[in-house]
Design brief:
This protein has seven helices and 13 strands. It is α/β, with parallel strands linked by helices. α3 crosses α5.
């Protein structure tokens, strides 16, 4: 199976740490964030990993070349990273969407069991990894469910509509990759496309009954957006190293 990691952003909420180093290259217990992600993917059987890069792409390319065999991890460059959101990074990776694949946000750190649970879920066109908590804030990518089926995804959902949150990991199988690639093409033709998240496309697909959830409740993961998240990520990794 293939994996695509979206790692084009600088991570401005982590300044000054990301003034010269992109978020995906920040060190967490001796390895960069993107290395932790790739190593978990390789451990779970993935052999075709693509990273979509932008800010200081050359530094990440050197890092990948130093730590992985030639051809093991490939890099795509998004030249529009500074003026667009991640919909365009997804669109850049369309050539990788010809068969089953995993799409992963470049700031999601997770334990191996998260991947195992997602890969073991029933085969659906689109499976969104989710988790739940007592309350959701404005920055959470919230999810509305009808049973196990996803009917809405977005940051602006009301508390009553917010049953889960997306953890930044989606599995596409069967006809899901082709349907997603086609939906990306349509979305990019819209005037506001440069400021859209790719999950806006998942939201549209959910309205047609193509998207299901896989709950990661009880498992460890974290989205690294700000300094407290980075500290929590270091604790998560340190705890795993102590096991």
């Amino acid at each position: 199976m293939k994996a695509v990691i979206l790692s084009a952003g600088q991570g401005r909420r982590l300044l000054p740490l990301t003034k010269e180093v992109p978020k995906c290259a920040l060190q967490i217990e001796g390895r960069s964030l993107v290395e932790w992600q790739i190593d978990e993917l390789l451990k779970s059987g993935f052999r075709d990993v693509t990273t979509v890069l932008g800010f200081r792409a050359e530094a990440v390319e050197r890092l990948l070349a130093d730590h992985y065999h030639p051809g093991q991890v490939q890099a795509l460059y998004n030249p529009f990273y500074s003026i667009c959101d991640n919909l365009v990074s997804c669109w850049m990776a369309r050539p990788r969407m010809t068969e089953d694949f995993l799409l992963l946000n470049g700031d999601t750190l997770f334990e191996t069991a998260v991947l195992a649970r997602l890969l073991g879920s029933p085969s659906r066109p689109v499976t969104l990894a989710t988790d739940c908590k007592a309350a959701y804030d404005a920055d959470d990518m919230k999810v509305t469910l009808d049973g196990n089926k996803v009917v809405r995804v977005g940051k602006t959902l009301t508390p009553e509509q917010s049953h889960r949150e997306s953890i930044g990991m989606i599995l596409f199988r069967d006809d899901g990759p082709a349907l997603f690639a086609a939906a990306l093409e349509r979305a990019l033709r819209e005037p506001h496309a440069l400021k859209q998240w790719y999950l806006s496309v998942i939201d549209e697909m959910a309205k047609t009954g193509l998207v299901w959830e896989c709950s990661m409740q009880g498992l460890q993961w974290i989205e690294v957006d700000c300094y407290p998240d980075l500290m929590q990520a270091r604790k998560l990794i340190a705890g795993r190293n102590d096991e």
